[in-house]
Structures are given as C-alpha cells and as structure tokens.
Amino acid sequence: MTSTPVLPQKPCALRVVPQPSDANVHGDVFGGWIMAQVDIAGSIPASRRANGRVATVAVNSFVFKQPVFVGDLLSFYAEIVKTGNTSVTVSVEVFAQRMSLADETVKVTEAELTYVATDLDRRPRKLPDFA
C-alpha cells in the first residue's frame, strides 16, 4: 500500500532520522526539535539568496499535521516564496517516511519563516542583486 502524498520531485534541503533522545518516553518526537530542524532547513535557501549570514526574525506560520516518531526518515523541502530589501521568506514542508511501514509517506509539518540578511556586526543588510 502506497500512501499519498509522495515525496516532492524537487531538491531536498535536509534529511534526518529522529533519535530516542529527540522524543518523549512514548516515542513521539518533541515539537521543539522539529521546529529547530525546520529552521535549519529554511535557513539554507535564505543563506544562499543572501550570499551569507541570515538571522531568523519570524515564524509566520507553523502547523504540526501528523506526529513524528523515532526512526521516521524526515525530508525537509524549503523554497523561497518572497524577498524584500533585506528579508527572505521561506516555505518549508516536512514529510515522514514511516520506517515501521516502509511504503507510507505522510506530510507532518508545514511552516513559513522569515530571515534577514545580516552583516558581520549582525545588522540587517541589503540582499545582493541577482547576477
């Protein structure tokens, strides 16, 4: 049995398998751990667009759609949805391939985060122009 959705046909920003230390005694992965991984995944395209350091300034939305379990293979897909003078807004989708049911894939999280490009003094700086 193959569930929908399937993994998106686009580059994956991050893949990780939650460990027992990332979960409660029942094997459910902590939401805060997932949020941290989403932030890391979202920062990748933001840093590339900024051509350098970025800081997370807002979590615009964050929805936990399904629980995440120890042993799930999580795939994080991040894409830029908006840019400003100094800011980059990134949409992140997270899918879990359930290791207990190898052919089951479920969307577990959706989020949108905003990052600001910063200089060496950690002050906002203008995004570079596209080449």
TrEMBL record:
It comes from Trinickia terrae. Gene3D superfamilies: Hotdog Thioesterase. GO terms for cellular component: cytosol. This is Acyl-CoA thioesterase. InterPro entries: Cytosol_ACT, HOTDOG_ACOT, HotDog_dom_sf, Thioestr_dom. It comes from the Bacteria. GO terms for biological process: acyl-CoA metabolic process; fatty acid catabolic process. Keywords: Hydrolase. PANTHER family: ACYL COENZYME A THIOESTER HYDROLASE, ACYL-COA THIOESTER HYDROLASE YCIA. The lineage of its organism: Bacteria, Pseudomonadati, Pseudomonadota, Betaproteobacteria, Burkholderiales.
